[in-house]
Every structure is written in C-alpha cells, then in structure tokens.
Design goal:
This protein is mainly alpha-helical and 174 residues long. 36% of the residues lie in helices and 7% in strands. A three-stranded parallel β-sheet has the order 1-2-3, covered by helices on one side. Helix 2 runs parallel beside helix 3 and helix 3 packs across helix 4.
Length: 174
C-alpha cells in the first residue's frame, strides 16, 4: 500500500480543525475541497488476450502494462465520477527504478522508453477525447523524479500534455 495519495490529499484538503477545539494542524491548499478517493488498480486481462499489451516479465512488457493500466485507470476515474473538476495523478512509469534503487537507461532502453511513452500518451489523449466530461477537468500530473529523464516520457499523462498537446493536463515537476 502506498501512502503518497493520502499525503497529497492532505496537502490539498486538510482542514485545520480549530472549530473542533484542536490547536494542532494545518489548512490545505483548499480546506473546503470535497475529495473523492480513487485507487490505481492493476488491470489483468488474462481472460481476454486481445485487451491490453501482451503479458510478460521483460522490462519492456512491464512498462507497456504500466502504460495500459495508467490509461485505463484515468479513463475509469473520469467516466465513473461526473462532478470532478480537478484530478490529481501521481503515477508514472518509473523507468530508472523506485526508492533508493537507481539504474540508468542505456541508449536502447531510452529509445524504447520514448516509444512506449509516446504510444501511451497518444492512447491517453484519445481516451480523454472520448470522455465528454474530461474536457472540463484539470488533470494535475506528477512528472516523477526519474533521474534527469525528460518529463515527456514520465507517464502517459505527461506525454499526452507535452507531446500530444492535451491542454487540460498540468505537468508538475520537483
């Protein structure tokens, strides 16, 4: 389980709680925001091999599965809830590892990363274009911290914004 989403939700919607007698706490960016939790899920389509990328344990297969899952999860979130005005997504490919593990990409891996990011960026754009309610939603997408790689290959959302020019995606990077 990942607590990052809870942390981000707290920064966005924390309510100081002074009215409840608590002298401790902070106000978030918008303490009056209504937060709707939505979890990233791993989508496995073993029953339908034509849906999604081919299964496999290779580095490339895993990244294609991640791209597919990210597109499906964002599409599902925007399709299921009609009153969303801002969607915060902190999910990425994590090309170079996670946590303290860092393995730089060799030139061939980087070329594959760029191809996969562009492919799923286009799929993300097409998915967002097909959901009428998505046009009015500001999507805030974390560009990840992938050790010097360009934000355009960090995730399908980032690629959709930066390469395919989807106007309602805001890419943030630290």
């Amino acid at each position: 389980h990942d607590h990052h989403g809870n942390h981000v939700a707290g920064i966005i919607g924390a309510n100081y709680g002074e009215d409840q007698g608590s002298p401790l706490g902070i106000d978030g960016v918008n303490p009056f925001a209504e937060l709707i939790p939505f979890s990233y899920t791993t989508i496995i389509r073993a029953d339908d091999p034509s849906a999604g990328p081919p299964a496999g344990n290779s580095w490339e297969a895993k990244k294609r599965q991640t791209g597919y899952q990210l597109v499906e999860n964002v599409s599902e979130a925007l399709s299921e809830v009609s009153n969303v005005r801002i969607l915060n997504v902190s999910l990425a490919f994590n090309w170079t590892g996670q946590g303290d593990v860092y393995e730089p990409l060799d030139p061939l891996e980087r070329q594959i990363a760029e191809q996969i990011a562009s492919e799923y960026g286009r799929e993300m754009k097409d998915a967002l274009d097909s959901i009428p309610s998505a046009q009015g939603v500001l999507i805030v997408s974390a560009a990840a911290n992938d050790h010097g790689l360009p934000a355009s290959i960090a995730s399908p959302l980032d690629n959709a914004a930066l390469e395919h020019r989807v106007p309602n995606i805001l890419v943030v990077e630290s």
